[in-house]
Write a structure and sequence with these properties.
Blueprint lengths: L4 E2 H7 L6 H9 L3 E3 L2 E2 L5 E2 L4 E5 L4 E6 L9 H5 L2 E3 L1 H16 L13 H11 L1
Antiparallel strand pairs: 1-4, 2-3, 2-5, 5-6, 6-7
């Protein structure tokens, strides 16, 4: 498929986001930049575009090498982009930092329960 694809569809097809509406919200909130500029969800993606993706837990800078508007397997999705060398180094560095400096609240998803709160309080004292 060589026709340009909407950026929200491409992000969903490349499996950066679980749903297309999450991808649309990320583009609207400015967490996605196309060629270092904010864009709208309907903006078309072309081959060789650079996309900065911040999905909340990770930050990537990828180069578009394939276009697809349909979500496929993870192996097919991985063929749609190449991560830049700088982005790869930065993510590895952040991963090492997380191993060294463990944040107690990192494994808690959403609002902490009473048990989670007690664990956090114990780790702080």
């Amino acid at each position: 498929m060589t026709d340009p694809v909407r950026i929200d569809k491409w992000l969903w097809a490349a499996r950066f986001f679980k749903t297309r509406s999450l991808a649309t919200d990320a583009v609207d909130s400015g967490r996605i930049k196309l060629n270092s500029e904010r864009c709208k969800p309907a903006r078309m993606v072309h081959i060789d575009d650079l996309i900065d993706v911040d999905n909340g837990s990770m930050v990537w800078q990828v180069k578009v090498v394939g276009l697809s508007g349909q979500r496929g397997s993870a192996t097919l999705a991985r063929l749609l982009y190449l991560e830049t060398e700088q982005s790869l180094q930065k993510r590895q560095q952040e991963s090492e930092q997380r191993k060294i400096f463990f944040e107690p609240g990192a494994e808690i998803k959403g609002r902490p329960t009473k048990r989670d709160r007690r664990m956090l309080d114990r780790s702080r004292s």
